[in-house]
Amino acid sequence: MPEAASDTRAAIGDSEFDRDTAVTRRAPGVYDIDLSAGWTIISAVNGGYLLAVLGRALADTLPHPDPFTISAHYLTASQPGPAVIRADVVRTGRTLSTGQASLFQYDEQGAEVERIRVLASYGDLDALPDDVRTTAKPPAFPPMDQCFGPEDGPAPVEGSSAITDRLMLKLDPSTLGWALGAPSGKGEMRAWFGLADGRDADPLSLLLAVDALPPTAFEIGLSGWVPTVELTVHVRCRPAPGPLRVSLTTRNLAGGFLEEDAEVWDSADRLVAQSRQLARVRLG
Amino acid sequence: MPEAASDTRAAIGDSEFDRDTAVTRRAPGVYDIDLSAGWTIISAVNGGYLLAVLGRALADTLPHPDPFTISAHYLTASQPGPAVIRADVVRTGRTLSTGQASLFQYDEQGAEVERIRVLASYGDLDALPDDVRTTAKPPAFPPMDQCFGPEDGPAPVEGSSAITDRLMLKLDPSTLGWALGAPSGKGEMRAWFGLADGRDADPLSLLLAVDALPPTAFEIGLSGWVPTVELTVHVRCRPAPGPLRVSLTTRNLAGGFLEEDAEVWDSADRLVAQSRQLARVRLG
């Protein structure tokens, strides 16, 4: 077979993201995975990558293929390396099925420590009727060539930035003040988003997309870590090929917590995913 | 003891809502409850009432008192009558603890049928710092005496409306077109909200407040049933005494599903709760 040309885009199912989220079924509902160090940021494994890993295990366990709504509570910080997922069917219906999954790693004594617990309802996006009656409009985005990625400047965050090598991330300059020492004060972050190897988006990679931008907290002027407590994603439509636009908004920072809402729009101007997370603000 | 005057407001802990959400611990993590028929609408037990019932069981099971984020997946339709709740601690931390709970009822053979499963992280609202850096603004609401409740007109919905006797609900006339046969087409619903017996709001009753208004689908022009698939509530602040303002928004109806976002504002103009649900549209 000829070698792929260097401009060949990775296909869905045969990309870095697919290899790094692949789970191996050890027994019914029990899956092994080696969490890749390639999806870390600062010292943590990215929460969207972890959600995609759990989403794959649930897709294997449940009779329906696509996460319609998935809620994750993040319990302890995951590390690159071996992990086991235990997934169960909660209920099976004709249109929707519901499942639960937990990801565990091991402490120094070899005991299982739970990292994340997830509840999700799955369906089949391709079986949905085509009706769309929406008032949602895509946010205004500058063209991609007027946006900036990590490769366009000095790394503004200390620590690992491995995940940035795996993403095509082009930030709207109006939400980039934080990287220049002048955060806007507004809780907004917007970016064109894709996978670096050109793999198109699918419902599973949308779980990554909602949690892959710099946190809105940076633009609010907070420089500390913002660990996710809980993240819920609704996947509303199979995304069209091409880059996504991801828009994050925080309206309420109070009592040391903030919400971060994400909208993901595809190249056909459809709202393909919505998410909200509750995160803690750890002031440096 | 003298009888209470008829204008006495029910106190938190001694109101109809408190009595109807009270769970009885049968064993550690196992609670009995008789679901009240007083919180039904059409043929279903209200999803917010059910969430409050599960929230009470979790408050008893976990070391922290208040639901910071609670995600419920609704599996089968609950009926008034006996139910059992099984609750477990997932993880205990200093600031937050995480728990899981399920509500079961019984089929004709007496077998348990799971109605709802919940994952939640609890904390202590009173222990949070006072910092507020928010850009969220309360939505415009007409004064309460310019809003309308179920008692102001003929019941627009067929079936049980028992829950309306337990609520103080005054709808913004600009979101009342559906009741007059002229829905606005906008996915909005706004109401002043309280409990009919005058009990003030607390974190538990906020779980009811986010799911107690007529669905936004009515204003979109859909008259069918809109069952909740999943509902996640963030409680952000202990509400001040006095009526609440609840604002619902739906932006995206597609493929037979819609999201419904709720904001709850207290009398001190603080955003005390945010929620989002994914619901199915059942076209008549």
Automatic annotation (TrEMBL), chains A, B:
Coiled-coil features, chain-numbered ranges: none
Pfam families, alphabetized: 4HBT_3, 4HBT_3C
SUPFAM superfamilies for this protein: Thioesterase/thiol ester dehydrase-isomerase (SSF54637)
Residue ranges constituting the Acyl-CoA thioesterase-like N-terminal HotDog domain according to the UniProt record: 36-121
Membrane-spanning residues: none
Acyl-CoA thioesterase-like C-terminal domain mapped to chain residues: 157-281
InterPro entries: ACOT8-like_C, Acyl-CoA_hotdog, HotDog_dom_sf, Sec_Metab_Biosynth-Assoc, TesB_ACOT8-like_N
Cited Gene3D superfamilies: Acyl-CoA thioesterase, double hotdog domain
Name of the protein in its database record: TesB-like acyl-CoA thioesterase 3
Lineage: Bacteria, Bacillati, Actinomycetota, Actinomycetes, Kitasatosporales
